[in-house]
Amino acid sequence: MISLTIAGSDSGGGAGIQADIKTFQELGVFGTTVITALTDQNTKGVHGVFKVTPQFVQQQLSSVLEDFSIKSIKTGMLYSAEIIEAAAAVLREQKIPLVLDPVMIAKGGEKLLQNSAVEALIEQLLPLTTICTPNIPEAEVLTGMSIKDSKDMERAARSILQMGSDWVVIKGGHTGEKDAVDRVYGHDAAFTMTTPRKKTDHTHGTGCTFSAAITANIAKGYTIPEAIIEAKKFVHLAISYPLFIGSGKGPTNHFAFNQQKGVCEVVVNEA
Ligand SMILES: Nc1ncnc2c1ncn2[C@@H]1O[C@H](COP(=O)(O)OP(=O)(O)OP(=O)(O)O)[C@@H](O)[C@H]1O
Ligand SMILES: Cc1ncc(COP(=O)(O)O)c(N)n1
């Protein structure tokens, strides 16, 4: 099984391309990569961004796709409208399932997607998307809605479905809820996934890890709901057993899922 991630490099190893290939590897999937930008980053924040030219992003993508039998693709930090356009031009010619993690702002507040790129993301990538995985601030930017409660989350998800994604997962990392509740919507299905919210500062790269696990699970042949629920287990265990490395917001633990033999209770309810 081979998957592809199109994302930015995190020199600190907790998010971006590095989180993605660690997650693929732990789930038994061979990872290939298209790098959109290098970040000079550690657990204290993003200190600089060095972007790759759109043409070279496209070259990497074409090289990977013409040689490997890629079973699933994810996108993370795409940075600019030009990079999105370059990637979309190649992806449009494929029918490979696409997980779009609409990465916009790092946990430390630094911009990972230019404001001018949001329209390109919506117009060029959402129509090609199998699963879109926004956190709440990202869902607000995509839809222009203000999200305050679960009704708003459903309205925002339905609006993103209308934009062309087959499934939407509104992640609950940023709510004030006692539990970490993610809400999943398809055109004919809706369910919630609940785990206890962990009191921890070691959440750097949670979104990347979650979307990479979904992508790997799709490559392994899981159905979309199974791929999403199993990915919730992966990220919950990664958050539950921190590595305590770095002096800022530490990375999640990509080893934990296999160390704990995948044992994690996720409560799934119809929404
Ligand atoms: N403290 C926590 N305890 C348990 N689960 C959490 C916690 N924080 C986030 N999660 C889970 O981690 C996953 C990623 O959600 P989150 O909202 O943090 O993504 P994100 O903000 O996109 O992450 P990133 O900042 O890395 O881009 C979701 O399944 C969410 O429920
Ligand atoms: C290259 C890259 N991609 C994504 C993130 C988001 O992760 P987080 O929100 O946890 O900082 C990041 N910090 N760096």
Describe this entry's structure for a reader.
It is a single chain. This protein has 271 residues and is α/β, with parallel strands linked by helices. The protein has a single domain (2-270), classed as 3-Layer(aba) Sandwich (UDP-N-acetylmuramoyl-L-alanine:D-glutamate ligase). It is 37% helix and 23% strand. It is built from 9 helices and 10 strands. It has helices spanning 16-26, 54-67, 81-91, 118-125, 136-143, 150-162, 206-219, 224-240, 256-259; strands spanning 2-10, 30-42, 45-51, 72-75, 98-100, 131-132, 167-170, 179-186, 190-196, 267-270. Strands 3-2-1-4-5-6-7-8-9-10 form a 10-stranded mixed β-sheet, with helices on both faces. Helix 4 (118-125) links the parallel strand 5 (98-100) and strand 6 (131-132). Helix 1 crosses helix 7 (206-219) and helix 5 (136-143) crosses helix 6 (150-162). The radius of gyration is 17 Å and the shape is globular. The structure holds adenosine-5'-triphosphate and (4-amino-2-methylpyrimidin-5-yl)methyl dihydrogen phosphate. Adenosine-5'-triphosphate binds next to strand 8, helix 7 and helix 8.
Provide key terms for this protein.
single chain; 271 residues; alpha/beta; UDP-N-acetylmuramoyl-L-alanine:D-glutamate ligase; 10-stranded mixed beta sheet; 9 helices; 10 strands; EC 2.7.4.7
Please report the first level of CATH classification, the CATH class. Alpha Beta
- Biggest sheet descriptor: 10 strands, mixed
Helix percent reads 25-40%
**Which class best fits the helix and strand makeup?**
alpha/beta
Low-confidence stretches: none
Q: How many independent structural domains? A: 1
The number of helical runs is: 9
Q: Measured on Cα atoms, how large is the radius of gyration?
A: 17 Å
Family: Belongs to the ThiD family.
Catalytic activity: 4-amino-5-hydroxymethyl-2-methylpyrimidine + ATP = 4-amino-2-methyl-5-(phosphooxymethyl)pyrimidine + ADP + H(+); 4-amino-2-methyl-5-(phosphooxymethyl)pyrimidine + ATP = 4-amino-2-methyl-5-(diphosphooxymethyl)pyrimidine + ADP
Domain Pyridoxamine kinase/Phosphomethylpyrimidine kinase: 10-253
GO biological process, one term: thiamine biosynthetic process
